[in-house]
Specification:
By secondary structure, this protein is an alpha/beta fold. It folds into 4 domains: 3-25 and 116-121 and 130-151 and 156-218, Calcium-transporting ATPase, cytoplasmic transduction domain A (Distorted Sandwich), CATH 2.70.150; 240-312 and 640-841, Calcium-transporting ATPase, transmembrane domain (Up-down Bundle), CATH 1.20.1110.10; 324-340 and 511-635, Rossmann fold, CATH 3.40.50; 347-507, Calcium-transporting ATPase, cytoplasmic domain N, CATH 3.40.1110. It is 49% helix and 16% strand. The chain is built from 28 helices and 22 strands. Strand 13 (412-418) and strand 14 (425-430) form a beta hairpin. It is elongated and about 120 Å long. It starts with 9 loop residues before the first helix and ends with a helix.
Length: 843
């Protein structure tokens, strides 16, 4: 919206747009549509599958696998190259397919911000305008539109005429209460917020009450809606998953890149072996790489996302976001529409003495009824609807004379009724200050009543004041009067000297299931933060009613307090600032939002969550989309995320500790032995067997304890774990080397090498099977137990088989099996003791 329109008069705006109160002609509208384009909100493009596959290669482990595969091809190690490149291709395809399915599911849930709009159009320059419905996408600057209760504002508009107009701007500002708007010819200075101009209405807001005629001043990408996208744009920060995996990855990648030259130099210097050891060096580097990481991670996340979509109608648009949900320890959310419904209910009615007085509610409801009937409003506003619901049938014993709906200038609504003995009665209700200004009160009494209203508001309630007065000389109108006569605004709407009747207070309706969902989330170890545009007392009251201790309540703009449960009066920038501050403090943050004012925070969070009913921009920005705005669905998504994350973490701990131990032992043996400890083909076969067994992690069921707290891959603790258990694994391997060195005293060196290679191969697979089973701590009946048993069987049966002979291995004498059994038994005991000590030290 052009900034000059904000201070221009209505006539100046109409002249600039080359239009008038009669609207555009069809030809003018068509020409402007061709020039300005469709009035559609900006939407991020959906990537095709090939670009998605290319993006998947940016993963550091996938990239290093690609490099190692190409290096294997360069040294003519074709088996290794084919296997590695196949794993890279499978991983990229799985990830692209998962994200494509998520986009298709989101497209099925997507709803337009508005379908049609009521517009004045003319067939020609000299033809009278007529009202017609057009698609919102066909609106153009200069169109004159009409708005009524329940309408969504289809574009940014300047009000030309308005009657009792209030709009919901919660999706733009987060404030749940309707905002009064007025057709001001000379605009007043705007408030501090970007949506505070009273003479402008913005795309994405909805009409709560009243009616208006307005001219469209901005459409499509020129609306404030689109400006919010620009303010929230830019490159998104790395999520918790990205930071964790990258932190672990680059440490290991550096080691893998150093391994080949170290192996080459050591063998050349100590053993006189040169480039012939290059295939072995590449095989050792591949042995350290968790080749199946992209496949296991993508499979775990894709299975979890598919289950969520099928069982709970939760669409995960970015697969790593499922891990981030599992790792999240803070969930930030808005109050309006999440913890509460957009529907107030009457709390109580108080007389002037502060005591309960049902007559106050009755008079307020009578006024609401006749305002609805005589002001020709198609539906009551939210507060009037609450009054009528609480009071039951009212108004039938009276006859309405006239009514003035809520006026933003007066901040009151007025109805005049008759049917009582005596003169007609004027009923006024509205803001406490405005109503008390019209009452016959001495200053002390007025201050006392203002203090009473302030006390009620301080508890988080909305307050409506009610006053009445008789109108002598205003004769009663008959019930049979014409609608035009009965509907005229009564001239005494600004009457003073009223009698103060009392106050009606309202509270927000709590969202069904919100209290139980909050208990579930806090039981999962998550801390809930409420970031709202509402009054702090209102937000604190809602928290208490839902069983959430509000703790310290702060107002946005104060110094950032990351320990505050409630941050009130939040703007879009405030929400993003709080989320960014929590992330900087080391938290993994989820954010649930549905409005334009939430977009910046959705992007700032580790994982952004939006309901299907959110505005398009928020829905497209979010990583996770809920079919309904249901906190309970978030609990299911968090559990699914922890399920996937626990399996990924188990896979990484088992794989990397085992691989690290094998590599340390392999490098040591390569320097100690007069021959290579394993042939490159044997290293590849061992890796393939271990990789195939590790697919079981994608189908594992974690222990319940893993689901009760956030699951995060923290690189320092993680690397300490794999280093400790990797060294223990290396000790077992080197113990096997020592036993074999003492036992192999035969005369035929080739036979000795074949037996050594076979024994080393078998021992490696058996230790890897033990690591899978014992470090995971699972049952032998689960997928991990079955995979470990299959891996052990391959280690025992492959060397004496024809395939083993083709790989240069041979069957082992029974005595070697006994020696290996002794070494493995000691290793299993040490591994179990180390795992028990680790679990005891873990917080």
């Amino acid at each position: 919206m052009a900034s000059e329109d904000e201070a221009a008069t209505s006539l100046q705006v109409l002249r600039r747009l080359d239009t008038g109160p009669r609207g555009l002609t069809e030809a003018e509208a068509a020409a402007r549509l061709a020039e300005a384009g469709e009035n559609t909100p900006p939407r991020p493009g959906t990537a095709r599958r090939p670009p998605r596959c290319v993006r998947a290669l940016r993963d550091p482990f996938t990239a290093v696998l690609l490099v190692l595969g190409l290096a294997s091809a360069l040294v003519a190690s074709w088996g290794t190259a084919v296997v590695i490149l196949a794993l890279v291709a499978v991983s990229a395809a799985l990830r692209a397919a998962g994200e494509h399915r998520a986009d298709r599911s989101l497209a099925a849930l997507r709803q337009l911000v508005a379908g049609t709009a009521t517009v004045l159009r003319r067939a020609g320059p000299d033809v009278e305008p007529r009202t017609r419905e057009v698609a919102v996408a066909d609106l153009v600057p200069g169109d004159v539109v009409r708005l009524g209760p329940g309408d969504l504002v289809p574009a940014d508009v300047r009000l030309l005429r308005a009657r009792g107009l209030t709009v919901h701007q919660a999706v733009l500002t987060g404030e749940s209460a309707p905002v009064a708007k007025a057709a001001l010819d000379v605009p007043r200075p705007a408030g501090p917020g970007p949506f505070d101009e009273p003479h402008l209405c913005f795309q994405g807001s909805g009409v709560a009450s009243g009616s208006a005629t307005a001219v469209v001043v901005a459409t499509g990408e020129r609306t404030r809606f689109a400006a919010a996208r620009g303010a929230a744009g830019g490159r998104r920060e790395a999520s918790a998953f990205d930071r964790s995996v990258h932190g672990i990855s680059w440490v290991l990648i550096r080691f893998m890149l150093l391994t080949p030259p170290l192996v080459l130099m050591a063998n050349a210097g100590l053993r006189g072996r040169g480039l012939e050891t290059l295939p072995f060096a590449v095989a050792v580097a591949v042995g350290l790489t968790p080749e199946m990481l992209p496949v296991v991670v993508t499979t775990c996340l894709a299975r979890g996302a598919a289950l969520l979509a099928r069982a709970h109608r939760v669409v995960v648009r970015r697969l790593p976001a499922l891990h981030d949900l599992g790792a999240a320890d803070v969930l930030c959310l808005d109050k309006t529409g999440t913890l509460t419904q957009d529907r107030p209910v009457v709390e109580r009615a108080l007389g002037p003495d502060g005591e309960e007085d049902p007559e106050v509610l009755r008079w307020a409801a009578v006024g609401a009824w006749w305002t609805l009937q005589l002001a020709e409003l198609p539906a009551p506003d939210a507060l009037d609807e609450a009054l009528l619901t609480a009071a039951g049938p009212v108004g039938e014993e009276y006859d309405g004379i006239g009514a003035v709906p809520f006026d933003p200038e007066r901040r009151t609504a007025t109805a005049v009724v008759t049917g009582l003995p005596g003169s007609p009665l004027l009923i006024t209700k509205g803001a406490a200050e405005a109503v008390l200004d019209r009452c016959a009160l001495d200053p002390a009494e007025r201050e006392r009543l203002l203090a009473l209203a302030a006390r009620e508001a301080a508890t988080g309630l909305r307050v409506l004041a009610v006053a009445t007065t008789e109108l002598p000389g205003a004769g009663p109108r008959s019930r049979g009067g014409t609608p035009a006569a009965r509907g005229r605004a009564y001239p005494a709407a600004d009457a003073h000297g009223l009698t103060f009747r009392g106050l009606v207070t309202f509270r927000d309706t709590l969202a069904p299931g919100a209290a139980e969902a909050l208990r579930t989330l806090t039981g999962l170890g998550m801390t809930v933060r409420v970031l709202t545009g509402d009054h702090p007392a209102t937000a604190a009251r809602v928290c208490r009613e839902l069983g959430l201790d509000p703790g310290r309540v702060v107002v946005a703009g104060d110094p950032l307090d990351l320990d505050a449960t409630v941050v009130a009066r939040c703007t879009a920038e405030d929400k993003a600032r709080v989320v960014a501050g929590l992330r900087a403090a080391g938290h993994t943050v989820g954010f649930l939002g549905d409005g334009v004012n939430d977009v910046a925070a959705l992007r700032a969070a580790d994982v952004g969550i939006a309901p299907r009913t959110a505005v398009d921009l928020a829905r497209e920005t979010a990583d996770v989309v809920l079919a309904e705005k249901d906190l309970g669905a978030i609990g299911h998504a968090v559990t699914a995320g922890r399920h996937s994350s626990a399996n990924i973490a188990s896979y990484l701990r088992v794989t990397l500790s085992s691989n690290l131990g094998n590599v340390i032992a392999m490098l040591s043996a390569g320097l100690l032995l007069p021959f290579l400890p394993m042939l490159p083909a044997q290293v590849l076969a061992q890796n393939l067997c271990f990789d195939a067994a590790q697919l079981a992690f994608a189908h594992d069921r974690p222990r319940p304890a893993a689901l009760r707290r956030p699951t995060a891959l923290r690189p320092p603790a993680f690397l300490r774990f794999i280093t400790g258990f990797g060294v223990l694994n290396a000790v077992a391997d080197l113990a096997t080397l020592g036993v074999l060195a003492l036992a192999l005293r035969g005369h035929d060196a080739l036979d000795d090498q074949a037996v050594f290679h076979s024994a080393w191969f078998t021992e490696n697979l058996l230790t890897q099977a033990l690591v899978m089973y014992l470090l995971r701590g699972g049952s032998h009946r689960g997928p991990i137990g079955r995979a470990a048993a299959a891996l052990a069987a391959v280690g025992l049966l492959l060397p004496p088989s024809p395939l083993g002979a083709a790989l240069g291995m041979t069957g082992l004498p029974p005595a070697f099996h006994l020696l290996l059994a002794a070494v493995l038994a000691l290793y299993a005991l040490a591994l179990r003791a180390a795992r028990a000590r680790h679990d005891g030290l873990r917080p």
